Amino acid sequence: MALVPCQVLRVAILLSYCSILCNYKAIEMPSHQTYGGSWKFLTFIDLVIQAVFFGICVLTDLSTLLTRDSGNQEQERQLRKLISLRDWTLAVLAFPVGVFVVAVFWTIYAYDREMIYPKLLDNFIPGWLNHGMHTTVLPFILIEMRTSHHQYPSRSSGLAAICTFSVAYILWVCWIHHVTGMWVYPFLEHIGSGARIIFFGSTTILMNFLYLLGEVLNSYIWDTQRNAVASKESRDHEARTINSPGGCPLPEWKVTERCSH
Q1: If we measure between CA atoms, which residue out of 56, 61, 55, 59 comes closest to residue 14?
Q2: CB under 8 Å to 17, separation ≥6 — which residues?
Q3: Which of 170-184, 196-210, 223-237 has the least mean pLDDT?
Q4: What's the rounded Cα separation, in Å, for the pair 168 and 162?
Q5: CA–CA gap between residue 241 and residue 238 (Å, rounded)
Q6: Cα torsion at 247, 251, 257, 258 (round to 10°)?
Q7: In whole angstroms, what is the distance from residue 49 CA to residue 92 CA?
């Protein structure tokens, strides 16, 4: 029964991302009409990543329910592949990119919002949509990590993948500047070439750090939970042994009966 709430939760999160994407794309902003469209913004790319990830989660849940007790080895093999894809997507893209967008956006916003999210955008993007793009990503991904264990890839392959994504996006931003003569983010206009290089290098390092943070957090959550379960089982066994005549474990219902008195 514990699986059902997780399924419902993932469907709700997926629908919320679909709603955010639809509302965002419906906004008629000048920047959407220029070279690269919405795809030049990491926020939009992140929203697509999150929507795809939770779509994979929902598909995995449905496949798990459909293949349960089926005994079909081919279906089980396909399910394992789907689970591996889900875990890889969370480890390499959904967690590091999602946390990066939230952390960097609100850090720069707090320092000077005109550098990242000019006040003019308030005329186009309502407050709830801004938080849907730049805030709720973090609690959603943490909820997913807490409700399901995810198998991380090898550290070398994971770091290589997130580095590839980071460098690819940086090259994409530079290409847009080469074509249009304008930077995607306003603050890049106000710093020199050396500072841009340092900034781009720092973002790549930060992405790698967030990948490692996700790996550690995933292990901590599930190692702690496994230890708690093992500790509870040990205490229950000890209670049945102590309360039984001759030191033999009592049935579980007897332990409950004695505790109730």
Answers
A1: 55
A2: 47, 50, 51, 54
A3: 223-237
A4: 10
A5: 5
A6: 10
A7: 11
Phi, psi of 65 (to 5 degrees): -65, -40
- Range with lowest mean pLDDT among 18-22, 27-31, 238-242: 238-242
Of 36-50, 63-77, 102-116, 217-231, where does mean pLDDT reach its minimum?
Answer: 217-231
- Three-state DSSP at 203 gives helix
Do 89 and 51 contact (CB within 8 A), yes or no? no
Distance spanning both ends of the chain, measured CA to CA:
30
**120, 66 Cβ separation under 8 angstroms:** no
Whole-structure pTM over 0.90, yes or no? Answer: no
